[in-house]
Amino acid sequence: MMLTDALSTCEQALHNPTDWMPACQQLANILQGVGQFEESSEWLSLSLEPEPDAVSVYARLGRLYARQESWPQAIEAFQQILNLPRGHAGAYWHLAKIYEHLEQVEKEFDCRYQLFALRPDEASGEGYYQLGDWFVEQEKPEEAITCYLHCIEYDAHFWAAYYKLGDLFSAQGECEQAIAIYQSVLDQDPYQMKAHFQMGMVWVKHQDDELAISKFREIVSLNPEFPWAYLELIKILIKQERWDDAIATCEAVIEFVQEYPWVYSHMGQALLNKGEVAEATACYQKACVMRGWWQCQENGYQFTQDSFSFQIELWLKHLQPLAEKAGVQALEVGSFEGMTTCWLVDHVFTEPEDHVTCVAPQFLKTFASNLERAEADHRVTLLEGPVHAYLETLEAETYDLINIQDRCKEAEHLYLDATLAWKGLKAGGMLLFKDYGWRGAKDPRQAPKVGIDNFLRSVKGQFKILHQGYQLILQKGEG
């Protein structure tokens, strides 16, 4: 008889006193024959028990099945223990190890969570932290919070756990709890700049501008070279239409800290709102040059806003394969002044046979003039009119790239954009969404992520995500 057969026989005999002794003895003989003398002795002892302990028996069976890599039987044995009044902690431990071996991450971490709840001493700060991260990925914030709280109980200086807790509380709208978490970090180390910054970001999220301004100014007084505090401070000043204060802060960053592209982008926004168009344009050009788009300044492109240049590095990474092909076809939905279009013809669609089609309800006059400056108007077609009406006419698998730049942020509108455009995308082609991570509208209909996620569910299994952040970049499957 094979070992696995003997294990099965023993398991079946567990509740039958008549069969129990011979089944155990047979198993003991087989174990002795394969050199597992200690296990053989233990099963001989168990055969003499008038009422065998089910927890002990199932645990031994589970371990032996696992050694034979009979994973379904091992899992079943340990799960049997979970139906009994005791022995759960050990069963969860063994199940977690089996699921780890089988790379079934969700089941592994669920077992670890149950184990830690029964035996906190089995865990460590790092163990709780990893478990918390997994629950965050599974979108189970309450369980994640519990794990991070246990983590800092084990290690009061485990700063990363504090920050994860603060993020979770803030995301749930629990402003006071988030602030308390960051304050507990600062009580231990007043120079934890990240804790100061995250506290300020909580006030930004909950639209308490004055407290946020106060906190960001405190940060730059403690650490004048902490750039992100300046960035958030400038954003709030622009939001409050305090153009001169915003410009002065930008100038201070440039003079006393460092020249950052984002400083010029925001200064351009403030200057434009003051009516200083030429100065604003120069700032936008400077930001683009600093991000590697030197043609923006050389060609003298005229833009009245910059909502793109911070994505240049991302686009270079993912769109480079298109630059290496000829005859590439692209579609832009919702183009404005042509900032993305000009960058594309400067860096990706550079061959004479490459072509970009732009469709929008209306184009600004500056779009055409920018295309002339790019000397690419023959490679770009502008179609003005109802966007969805055009998308409904797309021929299947026409475009290598479709860039959804639609300024409308309503969920239903973007869902329709994507659904109609999908048919026109070639297998292996890329689909870009400009505003996937956009937040801030009070109108619940203005939720780009909701509409785009609904689209993703409708084409589940037909794409690969290349990038997911503020922008979303998909690649259509070949099948």
In CATH terms, what is the architecture of the largest domain?
A: 3-Layer(aba) Sandwich
Tally of structural domains: 3
Strand order in the sheet with the most strands: 3-2-1-4-5-7-6
| Multimeric status of the protein | single chain
By CATH reckoning, the class of the largest domain would read Alpha Beta
Task: Summarize this structure briefly.
The protein has 479 residues and is of the alpha/beta class. It contains 24 helices and 7 strands. It is globular, with a radius of gyration of 31 Å.
Structure description:
With 479 residues, the chain is α/β, with parallel strands linked by helices. Helix content is 61%, strand content 9%. The two termini are 48 Å apart. The protein has 24 helices and 7 strands. The chain is globular, with a radius of gyration of 31 Å. It has helices spanning 3-12, 17-33, 37-47, 54-67, 71-82, 88-101, 105-118, 125-137, 141-154, 159-171, 175-188, 193-205, 209-222, 227-239, 243-256, 261-273, 277-290, 295-298, 312-323, 339-347, 365-374, 387-391, 411-424, 448-458, and strands spanning 329-333, 355-360, 380-384, 399-404, 425-433, 463-468, 472-476. It has 3 domains: 3-125, Alpha Horseshoe (Serine Threonine Protein Phosphatase 5, Tetratricopeptide repeat), CATH 1.25.40.10; 137-298, Serine Threonine Protein Phosphatase 5, Tetratricopeptide repeat, CATH 1.25.40; 309-476, Rossmann fold (3-Layer(aba) Sandwich).
